[in-house]
Design a protein that fits this description.
The structure is a homodimer of 349-residue chains. Chain A is mostly beta strands. Chain A is 3% helix and 51% strand. In chain A, strands 18, 19, 20, 21 and 22 form a five-stranded antiparallel beta sheet that branches. A four-stranded antiparallel beta sheet of chain A has the order 1-25-24-23. In chain A, strands 2-3-8-9 form a four-stranded antiparallel beta sheet, with no helix packed on it. The radius of gyration of chain A is 19 Å and the shape is globular. In chain A, 52% of the residues are buried.
């Protein structure tokens, strides 16, 4: 296994990003979508911010209010000593295992690079939560290029659940909201870069509420907006590196042996690693191979010490000369990159 | 309020239905889909069966195995004294609040009536679980008639979750599986009987896993197979008769004031009652009115004493002369019917 992490890692850190408001600070810049625009590498950054706090006994939870004539950020203060409230997970506040608020709110920003390692972040912020389904933030974008249009799938989070939204851009300057393409609870959606037998394909990751586990499903669409023919594709594996939850990361990569899908898996210790699936080129509903072991595990300090957990979590990659350049969120806090020869990923099958 | 329950209630009971196998017994016949075929009233019955048991210390859980060359029923025996297994809900076996097996498996049967009160059940069983997504059974059908075709939406249950499937028929003799139209966890899907501005519409009820509550969403489709534009429509209401979960029941009924949607709501005591929503005739994504109080609550003995809970749960209704004939499952065990003048439902708004 010869994963080469970039020497410059982490490529983008919290300190590289200006908060969007004076009364907020950036707690994480991570899980970026990846695309090529001309010769440049584009990262669509997930920037998570929290309200500045002066009181250690309270937790502030931000959300957007779209019921007003003009949308406004609202911040709730929750008392750490309030009975029944659970603050043990730094990402949110829970009552009876149900999340009632997030401690941060995310939006997207664009970063551009000529060499794939040094990024400049756009000053303008043009991709903020925009409707009620996004009131708690937008997260974890994936970008698929089809006929010159960049299709961005991402998690839209609100008190009504985590759904999947689709937006488009041609220049990463103007973004257009298209639709909510999958209802809650769903995330980790990647669109295939071409039609197969006249249909668009997507992988997604429903999280069932009572029966079932967080597994990867496959679906088809005539138009990228309306989705059907949902089928179970691949599930968590007991006693494996991907035993607790899985989800597709990068857009499927066409290889001569099949569609290569990089995906994350979490184990019982909530350690997130990256492995791969190989799908039939003519029928992505058929799994041909799957990583016995991950090709990337959280090992470096920036991957194990951050906002949350020991995490490598990719939302995008680029292939050149049989080598994958993969970008990933590290410990829900910063962004790193690595290069992996395709054959080394195939060696995990 | 003048709900008239049929004198003949329950219209269909467990004893009216022959089990599909000698080694099974019927535990419930309930939650039927409703349609008119010529002058006849059709009920598509959900028949739930359990394996016959001789050992009081074990619980038998049935499921279909579709991985064999020909599908076969398999029955697992679980020891009531096994640590970690939770048998407190008669409907299933749980580990840590996750259902690992059902104690019954459901299929559909057709019943026909000339007067809407006395039903004959077809001898032939033509609508059984048919694929892996249905391995734990098929449940709670709703029937929408569009251009002479009956579209049946129902819950497909398996170890991979509760998804929504679509089947069609023109005669209730031959049924055709169309597709899985919504991934887990989702149920309570009703299709509108006509297109609106060129789009098909559906109501559905995702059950989010971590954020959100079991609420009703609305979506559109160009072809009834692929669904998108998912939007939150109406949620549970604290301290109300519908505080814990809700879901559309009968196919939306066109009235001069808007689309009338009969829906079930469960309160904190898991009592299921029936109320209604009124939706904008041109934009079903807009709620115009909602029942302050249910128009039907479980009160009769067959509604309060059955397989599970105090439940009235409708999957279908017919409108004639400003009166609704509603059929409903009673206590997850038998089928009842009632008549309600439209104006009495509007009085609950």
């Amino acid at each position: 296994m010869s994963v080469m992490r970039y020497r410059e890692n982490p490529l983008i850190s919290v300190n590289d990003v200006e908060p969007s408001r004076d009364d907020f600070h950036v707690v994480g810049v991570f899980n970026p979508g990846v695309a090529k625009l001309g010769n440049q590498t584009i990262l669509l950054l997930r920037v998570a911010e929290s309200p500045n706090s002066v009181n250690r006994n309270s937790v502030l939870t931000p959300s957007m209010n779209f019921d007003l004539s003009s949308p406004a950020m609202t911040v709730r203060s929750l008392d750490r000593n309030e009975p029944g409230l659970d603050f043990s997970d730094s990402r949110g506040v829970f009552i009876d295992n149900r999340m009632i608020a997030l401690t941060s709110i995310s939006h997207f920003r664009v970063a551009r690079s000529d060499d794939g390692r040094h990024f400049e972040i756009d000053d303008n912020i043009r991709f903020l939560p925009q409707n009620r389904a996004e009131a708690w933030g937008i997260e974890d974008p994936r970008i698929t290029t089809i006929n010159g249009v960049y299709y961005i799938t991402y998690s839209a989070v609100s008190e009504n659940g985590v759904s999947v939204a689709l937006a488009t851009t041609t220049d990463f300057t103007e973004f257009k909201r298209e639709s909510c393409i999958l209802p809650p609870t769903n995330k980790d959606v990647v669109l295939f870069p071409e039609t197969i037998h006249g249909q668009y394909y997507a992988l997604h990751r429903p999280a069932p509420s009572d029966i079932g586990t967080p597994d990867i499903w496959v679906s088809t669409s005539p138009d990228l907006i309306h989705w059907g023919n949902h089928r179970y594709l691949a599930g968590v594996r007991e006693d494996s590196w991907d035993s607790q939850r899985i989800g597709a990361g990068a857009v499927p990569i066409r290889t001569k042996d099949g569609w290569l899908v990089l995906y994350h898996g979490a184990n019982r210790e909530n350690q997130y690693s990256m492995g791969a699936l190989l799908l039939d080129i003519d029928n992505p509903g058929r799994v041909m191979a799957r990583s016995r072991v991950p090709f990337l595990k959280p090992e470096e300090s920036y991957e194990t010490n951050g906002f949350w957990g020991a995490v490598v979590f990719s939302c995008g990659a680029i292939v050149e000369d049989d080598t994958i350049q993969m970008y990933y969120g590290a410990a829900d806090q910063s962004i790193a990159g690595c290069e992996v020869p395709l054959k080394d990923i195939f060696d995990t099958f």
